Automatic annotation (TrEMBL):
It comes from the Bacteria. It comes from Exiguobacterium indicum. This is Membrane protein. It is a multi-pass membrane protein. The keyword Cell membrane applies. Residues 224-278 form the DUF2179 domain. GO terms for cellular component: plasma membrane. The chain crosses the membrane at residues 12-31, 62-79, 86-107, 113-134, 154-187. The keyword Membrane applies. Its main location: membrane. Signal peptide: none annotated. Keywords: Cell membrane, Membrane, Transmembrane, Transmembrane helix. It is found in: Cell membrane. It holds the Pfam family YitT_membrane.
Amino acid sequence: MTAVVKESMLKVIVASIGGFVIAVAMNWFLIPSGVYSTGFTGLAQILTQVLQNTAFAFGENVWFLALNIPLIVLAWIMLGRSFTIITLVSVLATTIFIGLIPQYAVIPGDQTLNAVFGGVLLAIGTGITIKFGASTGGFDIVALIFARFSDRSVGLYLFVLNFLIALLAGALFGWSTALYTIVFIYVTSKVVDEIHTSNQRLTIFIVTNHADDITTALHQHIIRGITQIPSIGTYSRAEKATLMMVIERHELRDIERICREADETVFINVVATDSVVGYFRKG
């Protein structure tokens, strides 16, 4: 089994686990307590409540999948095949598990605790999925696409879109509901930052004796510019090359794998990048 196949299988497993954890957060904490989630899971909750006595009375899982389908198609076109396939796995896993796991109030009658524990669980499911180079669908995809056409961050778009969900929930079901949803948004964002970190862009320095092999392999899989810098080891006095790249976090695992396959002794230093001046392809 090749390293690429192993990595792909690992991503599928992680995305499926992430979908399961998100479903547990929804069915055991958020839905039973009337706390509304962020993104398309929250929008699915709202649609389920508003349309429950109509011909469109579907469950949260059906609405979640229906809302994501057009965005999955758009992501395939604009954000790449690998990212979209794992995102689709995450969306399908979340849809299936929300339908299978029974709704049960683990903490009945306490919306604050439900918002906190539901937020932590949903953030864990979302964070591990993002960490392995995918998204959980919904507003993640919208924010990534918006960010590609502006200088504003993905995080800003996510905050605005999720805040709109809180306002919509408040307008429909009472403003106390909106406040509990804002608590949920805060907890979720903090936990996701701890898992994934808030730094989306990274600068990596790759020190290697096989610069040509690594750059050839990277150019075949990653659409990023690479700057090659001649280097000399101060102890060995051996001539090496240092490759510098600015990337997005979800690309890091694939780049590390590609570099290790081309050079088992490669040295990689990863540095958080606050800003980039000049052209940088987003997504």
